[in-house]
Amino acid sequence: MRAVVTCEACGFRQEVAREIPQPTSFHIICHRCEQSLRVSVTPADIRTAEAMLRTRSPIA
Ligand SMILES: [Zn+2]
Question: Would you say the pTM of this structure is higher than 0.85?
Fold first, then answer.
């Protein structure tokens, strides 16, 4: 899945351009104000992302 993180300091929304196959947490640096942002991906987030992917995919 791909995550979109909103900076708590300046409100800048940035997409995390990495695959996140399972629940995890990590830090990224805000591209605008360079604040360190903690990103948490929960099992629910993974399920939501997978459900969205399935909805978009054509039926094979
Ligand atoms: Zn920021």
Answer: no
**Ligand 1 center from residue 60 Cα (angstroms):** 42
Q: What separation in Å is there between the alpha carbon of 53 and the centre of ligand 1?
A: 29
Residue 5: left (phi > 0), alpha (psi -120 to 50), or beta?
A: beta
pLDDT digits (tens, 9 = 90+) for 1-60: 677 889 999 999 998 878 888 999 999 999 999 999 988 899 998 898 888 888 876 665
Ligand 1 center to residue 11 CA distance, Å?
6
Radius of gyration of the chain (CA): 13
Cα–Cα nearest to 37, from 13, 57, 53, 1 = 13
